[in-house]
Amino acid sequence: MSEVEQAIAQLRAHGERVTPARRAILAVLRDDSRHLDAETIATQVADREPGVHRATVYRSLQALSECGVVTHTHVPSGATIYHLAESAQQHAHLQCERCEKFFDVPADWLDAVAEKASSRYGFTVDRSHAALLGVCADCATR
C-alpha cells in the first residue's frame, strides 16, 4: 500500500472525509521531496485541483496533522514545513542559521537526547517537530 493509500485509510479510520483537496495535498507531499511550507503546498494543489481555495488547503493541513497523517516541523524562518507522517518518522531536521539550508538526518541520531529527557524529566521528545539549528560546513568556511 502506498503512503497516500495508507494516509487515506488512516483518515477514514478517524471518521474524516477524503476530499479532492486532501487527496491533492497528500499527492503533493508524496511527489515533492523538498521541505514544503503551506503556501507552496497551496500553490501546487491549485495546479492539480484548480477549484481548491488556499484557505481549504490550510484548514486541511491542520486536520491532516491532527489525525496524524501529516506531520509539521517548526523552523526558525517562521514557516512550518510539512511531510507525510510515514516519511517524517524516519528523519529529523538540521537547519543552517545562515543560508537556511535543511539537512535530513536519521531520527535515531537524537536517541541519546530523547533518552536523557525521558529519564531525567519524564519528557517525550517529538524528533520531527522542530529543526536543530547550527551552521553548515559551507557557511562556516566563508
Automatic annotation (TrEMBL):
Gene3D superfamilies cross-referenced by the UniProt entry: 3.30.1490.190, Winged helix-like DNA-binding domain superfamily/Winged helix DNA-binding domain
Residues the record lists as binding Zn(2+): 96, 99, 136, 139
Any one biological process term the GO annotation gives: regulation of secondary metabolite biosynthetic process
Keyword entries, A-Z: DNA-binding, Metal-binding, Repressor, Transcription, Transcription regulation, Zinc
Needed cofactors: Zn(2+)
Cofactor binding: number and manner: Binds 1 zinc ion per subunit.
One GO MF term: zinc ion binding
A Pfam family that the UniProt record links to this protein: FUR
InterPro entries reported in the protein's UniProt record: FUR, Fur_C, WH-like_DNA-bd_sf, WH_DNA-bd_sf
This protein's record includes keyword DNA-binding: yes
Keyword Ubl conjugation: no
Family listed: Belongs to the Fur family.
Official protein name in the record: Fur family transcriptional regulator, ferric uptake regulator
Organism: Branchiibius hedensis
Taxonomic lineage of the native organism: Bacteria, Bacillati, Actinomycetota, Actinomycetes, Micrococcales
